[in-house]
Amino acid sequence: MTVVAGLTVNGPGTGIDVQGLVKSLVGAQTAPKQAQIDSQTKTSTAQLTSIGKIQAALDAFRGALDNMTKTVNFSGLSSTLSNDKLATVTLGPGAAAGNFTLGVTQLATASKVSSAVISGGPTAVVNSGASATVFTVSQSGKNYSVSVPPGGTLQQVRDSLNSQYGNVGLSANILTDSNGSRLVVTSSTTGVGSDITFKGSSGLDTGATVVGSAPQNAIYNLDGSPQESTSNTLPDAISGVSITLTGVSGTDPASTIKVSANAATLKSAVKGFTDTYTALVKAVNAETQVTTNADGSVTPGALTGDSSVRTMMSSIRNVMNSVTGSGAFKSLAQFGVTTDQTTGALSVSDVAFDKAALTNGSDINSIFTGPTGLLASLTNATANFALSKTGVFAQKSTTLQDNLRDLTDQQTALNTRSDALTASLTVKYNAMDSLVAQLKAQGDSVMTTLNSLNNPKTT
Q: Looking at residue 2, what is its pLDDT?
């Protein structure tokens, strides 16, 4: 066996390894294109994955900003009640420090109505006729009807009411005792005028009775001023303060609601912001930074130098560097929020923050809240990048997905070309090998004949 230029010579004709030769020739033809497809596929896949990670981090960042906007933690206020059995208090935008007294004489209640007792339990048939009947619950001028099919049971009526009208506050239950079962309907709507009545052709309205007393309004006083409400939730009783009544005063003294400055609440809000911001920065760094390897070489991130990410971070930094407020502070550093110059992460100095918040809590609040505050400004600055279909990152993801589909098509075409070339070259070189084998056989035959002529037999 002889080896020539990497080819095995051991065949019956030319001695050439035809399969190996064809593979080498096809590889030489397709290798450059295959390398291009592999490289571009690897790059596009890595970029698509990285864009997805940054998009997820951006969505989390914007979601956190939205939640912060809805809370009042940046106001640096907290609330307490001297008698927490009477109510709960929630602070909202516009809340201000102050003390208020609350007394509760009566809670708002809802209507509750029961059908007559029906023997047979929850599965008792309430429509024994051949056609459907209708059961209607009326409240505040509105009718809520369900169809009761032939053979329909009390349980089916309950389930229909709950599934169709649970979203408007109606709730149906079945109470069963030794006398039988009753359908009881109540509502989350409270106050005078919210009475429930039954009607319709089902017969369930016959003998219906009110359970307990008729619905009533809440009666309370706030700072000595008598008030009345159809609901126990009082969203506008005090500016920026929502009160939910939960009990009556009775012989207890009125409860004092105290809304006061709380630097700890404000610090928690600011640290929540810095943590949220830093999480986004870390996510971006992970996909864009250049890594120095042990041998001194460098490996770029999947999105190193990417213009879309660079533009987004530039927009964010512009907002952070253009802080405005209504008070003395014009930068985050003035109340202890500093930026790591290497990573871009934010941190809060407790000493500097506590000193600033002691006398200028409202100034810190103004930097974060309002239409020109950091929360709103950062939300606006990142909006164009976060849109689910037309945003910068969404469009980039679409482009990368299109690239990957095109590369898949290119791979299919290259495979087809490779298969065709392999088949063509295999036929060609097999034919050549067969021809050489034939010629060799003929040559061997001639040589045998000549040798026999040159060496006659002796007698």
A: 36
